[in-house]
Amino acid sequence: MSIWRKTEQRALSTSIDPYQITSRPYFANYSGEIVNETNAFASSAVMAAVTILADCIAVMPLELMTDKGGRTEKLPTPSVLIKPNETQTTFEFIHQLVCMMALHGSAYIWAPSNAGELPAEMRNIHPLQVKGLMQTDTGEMAYQIGNEKYSLNEVRALHWVIFPNQKKGLSPLEVQRNTIGMGIAMDRFLAQFYGEGATPSSVLESDSSLTPEQASILRDSWEDAHHKRRRPAVLTNGLKWRSITTSAADMQMIEHRESIIRDIARAYRIPLHLIVGSGGDSQTYQNVEMAGINFVRYTLLPWMRRIEDAISEMLPVTQKVRFNADEFQRADLTTRVNAQRIQIESGTLSPNEARQQENKEPYIGGDVFYSPTQAQGGKLVTTGVDKLKPL
């Protein structure tokens, strides 16, 4: 298959503008560091932000749904959503898809199918292999991948942010190359600083001139007497001990590294506490349920919807896929039980439906709905069962 064959490698700088506006980078990078999909993961903040997006979305069950009589009904999961291709599970496929979109701003799915049928398989195409959307000789639009052209029925594109008349979405790596590059440069500087170990932990000062032999004896004697010991030191002949502490400039560098982490978290809309960032996260959650709801609503949902829409376009018209995010929005046991009890007493939920939410088997008579009003004697009045049958 031509998509998967080895492509030509060209010796082009990674700073060439991908949007073909100028030969210079469209987004500046003054750090002097090359930022690409590989070394960007040298930044722990980028690795944490991208992987938490990919991990959280990939663990959600991808369910096949259909509309019947105005109701959404869950269908058995087809094999292509269990194992999209011969080498990947659904988790690996979705994880890779989110990573490509989070790094490059665009992701592409190759999924050939006949009209009205499920695709036989789905594969991710690396965004750097896609030259863009162009018009063929017959007037149809197609994606240029290598030397081949693939129709819109074979390839689906997902974009993070895309402007009108652009071929690809904005790449977070390109937009944030200056911020990510600064983080990489600081990590490299600190690693060299502490790795080379040119700065001593302390200094012994003397007003007298010392020969190299005397200085060596004095240093060794000090280490023998005080290494890993907290014994009082006795200094004579004007000898003074001075500790080497971190300078204000070094402290500012550490604070600036934390600000870079906050900038990257802000770009991906990741709560700082999820990537163990310090400071700046003023969001307060009342409980675990609200934390999950806010994370899904403001961070994960837009990514989920892009994937759902792209895959749903490949399915028959009456079918669609949806991620099940219930586990992220699941309340604690006491809250769930109280909410279910109120819904059962108000007639909006049957006992068996409540048991299904807790992954428990139904019981005979549990499909009955109750009236919101109490009957005499404190017993709930039944209003019947849900008799709407699947079409």
How would you describe this structure in keywords?
10 helices; three-stranded antiparallel β-sheet; about 400 residues; about 15% strand; alpha+beta
Structure characterization notes:
With 391 residues, this protein is α+β, with helices and mostly antiparallel strands. 36% of the residues lie in helices and 17% in strands. The chain has helices at 44-58, 79-82, 90-104, 172-175, 177-196, 212-226, 248-268, 288-312, 333-345, 351-357; strands spanning 62-68, 71-75, 106-110, 123-125, 130-135, 141-145, 148-151, 155-159, 202-205, 240-243, 319-323, 368-374, 380-385. The strands form five sheets. It has a three-stranded antiparallel β-sheet with strand order 2-1-11. β12 and β13 (380-385) form a beta hairpin. α1 (44-58) packs across α3, α1 (44-58) runs parallel beside α7 and α5 (177-196) runs antiparallel to α7 (248-268).
Give a short synopsis of this structure.
This protein is an alpha+beta fold. It is built from 10 helices and 13 strands. A hairpin with a 2-residue loop joins strand 1 (62-68) and strand 2 (71-75).
